[in-house]
Amino acid sequence: MNPKPATKRKIVDKTVKMVSGLGALIGIFFLIWILYIVIQRGASSINWDFFTKLPVPPGVTGGGISNAIVGTFLMTLLASLVGIPIGLLAGVYLSEFGRYDRFGELVRFAANALMGIPSIIIGLFVYALIVLPMRHFSGWAGAAALAIIMIPVVARTTEDMLSLVPNSLREAVLALGAPRWKMTLGVIFRAAKTGLITGALLAIARVSGETAPLLFTSLNNVYWTKSLNEPTGNLTVTIFNFAMSPYEDWNRTAWGASLLITFAVLFLTLVARIIFREVKQR
Amino acid sequence: MESMEKTKKGSRHGFGDKVFKIIAVGMAAFIILIMSGLLLELFEGSKLSLKKFGLSFLTSSEWNPVTENFGALSSIYGTLVSTIIAMLIAVPLSLLISLFLVELAPPFISKPAGAAIELLAAVPSIIYGMWGLFIFAPFMSDHVQPFLTEKFGFIPLFQGPPIGIGMLSAGIILALMILPFISSVMRDVFKMVPPVLKESAYGMGSTTWEVTKKVTIRYGIKGLIGACFLGLGRAIGETMAVTFVIGNKHSISLSLFDPGNTIASTLANEFAEASEPLYLSSLIHLGLVLFFMTLVVQVCAQLWLKSVNKKMGGGL
Fold first, then answer.
1. CA distance A96 to chain B (A)
2. CB pairs under 8 A between A and B
3. Is residue B50 domain-resident?
4. Nearest to A120 among B32, B239, B295 (CB)
């Protein structure tokens, strides 16, 4: 045996191992860098006023973004109330009725395609569908855009989670004489409960950090909105407007809002993952 | 009596189930309705521009709201270039990361490291934008771009003033954003390779790298390509992060340091100011172009992964 090529092979192997470890480090490095900056720049803006007061003009000290926090919360809530049930039921169809048929195939395809459509296009769609006929921007339109983004996500995760429930359970319930709807909602849903909650949480996490679909739907508002029928303030568009402005106070507020939204979204994502890991272990 | 009760009960079940099924079908159909409504509204909205510019919309690089002359070429060019930069960085990096996480790292490292990489996907797009504009772009202009000009300045790609904001910075940030999506699919592909294949290669005396190159990658190549498609679809339509750092200039320039724009960034920037009907219609027309670009990528990815799944008999 010739030892030389063997050492060369080992060197190549070592190099690749090191480079690949470096690759993982790069990814983690950027995550830490971004989170560090968000905390470092945003922490100073977070105080009581930040949560309770309205935005102030540049140059004036104090002020907060209470209206944007409430606006984001309301629109996300509304989108979830509409999007999650629709997504759940569509997922039920995909898993329980249309697992193998043509229509199911088509729906699955449409859902996958819809998930891949950039969120700004969804914003355009809702603009043309709701904002143009109503002739003004509104919180309703913003919530509708977010709901449309949620539906395919929830539908596909629901299908996946329900498919994991063994068929013998379905057969057992039906054999007891229960109707199909009772079987699905009462037993299959319960069996897949944590998976469904995970899917819903991930969908909420995803839309609550969205900016692009709100730009032309809910727009933004520096005042309290009396109803969702008018332009509604929200965190992400506030960040966009304030960050693009030349005023330092506004930039600082934008960092504060960034800190808030980043950790809200990361928190939701982590909760969803932890719940799901527990299921997997069981 | 007993049998009558049974049939009665049976029919009641039948009714409830029918309603249940109709609701489920309705919601499923709703997804198709949204999809077709989307296409319809985009066509409807861009009618004015379609009539006025026709196909020349795609080949003209003019974008002048004052004279109302619109063409999508610079936006399409920017979308493609920023996506290509992102793919060139993200694909090899994802490959290395998945290799590290699946084959090399012990579980106590690979679990938290994998979770951290996936968290990159949870950071909202606008946060990448903030970080990109205020931190990363200055870093690029102070350190990376002067270095590139010094070493590779003879290539036109790396010439020009190092202002930080521009195509290259946008591409790098895009790469970071699609990295978690590509690497998560790649990890699944690596895990699907039957251990017996790898073991027999190791048994022949191969090193880890040789097994990866000659067995793992070769076995999973189709899945890996599918992962790239998914990342591509994400990168094309990414909006906020790009809008912050690309510079938003309607121009086509060979240098990657120059500001440019993408379809999505143009929409995000100009839609609110568009008051003239033709301007608005041209922007929706841009949206239609983007819609078809992502749709083509999506459809290819889905068909591709489906054929792979059938062959490999696994669930991706």
1. 9
2. 260
3. no
4. B239
> Is residue B206 in some structural domain?
yes
Q: Which CATH number does the domain housing residue B153 bear?
A: 1.10.3720.10
Cα A213 from chain centroid? Answer: 12
Q: Which of A31, A112, A253 to mutate to test the interface with B (most CBs of B within 10 A)?
A: A31
Chosen domain end from B11, B27, B45:
B45
Is B135 part of a structural domain of the chain? yes
**Nearest-angstrom CA–CA distance, B222 and B220:** 6
Cβ–Cβ under 8 Å, residues A236 and A250: no
Is there a contact between A28 and A216 (Cβ–Cβ < 8 Å)? Answer: no
Say if residue B119 is in the same domain as residue B255.
yes
For residues B36 and B142, membership in a common domain is answered with no
| Domain with B19 in it | 2-45
Are B184 and B293 members of one domain?
Answer: yes
Amino acid A223: pLDDT:
87
Pairwise CB contact (< 8 Å): A92 & B24: yes
Mean pLDDT over each residue of chain A, to the nearest integer: 91
* Tokens matching residue B235: 């990168």
> Which residue is it, tokens 């949560």?
A51
What is the rounded distance in angstroms from the CA atom of residue B83 to the CA atom of residue B103? 29
Which band of pLDDT confidence, cut at 50, 70 and 90, is reported for residue A276?
Answer: confident
Average pLDDT value for residue range A31-55: 93
Q: What pLDDT, on a 0 to 100 scale, did the predictor assign at position A282? A: 58
| B112 and B236 belong to one structural domain | yes
- Asked whether residue B216 is domain-assigned, the answer is yes
3-state secondary structure at position B198? helix
Residue pLDDT tens, chain B, 316 long: 344 444 444 555 688 889 999 999 999 999 999 999 999 999 999 999 999 999 999 999 999 998 999 999 999 999 999 999 999 999 999 999 999 999 888 889 999 999 999 999 999 999 999 999 999 999 999 999 999 988 888 888 888 888 899 999 999 999 999 999 999 999 999 998 999 999 999 999 888 888 988 899 998 888 899 899 989 999 999 999 999 999 988 989 888 999 999 999 999 999 988 889 999 999 999 999 999 999 999 889 888 877 877 766 554 4
Helix (H) or strand (E) holding A16: helix A3-42
On whether both B40 and B141 belong to a single domain, the answer is no
CB contact A186 to B (< 8 Å) = no
The amino acid at B95: L
Residue A221, SS3 per DSSP: coil
Q: Domain tally for chain B?
A: 2
Query: Interface pTM (ipTM) of the complex?
Result: 0.92
Residues B91 and B110 grouped into a single domain: yes
CATH topology classification for A51-281: MetI-like fold (1.10.3720)
Q: A190 CA to chain B: closest CA distance, Å?
A: 17
Backbone region of residue A165 per phi and psi (left: phi > 0; alpha: psi in -120 to 50; beta: other values): beta
* Token couple for A15: 């190099």
C-alpha B205/C-alpha B198 separation (Å) is: 11
Same-domain status, B31 and B136: no
* Whether B114 and B81 share a structural domain: yes
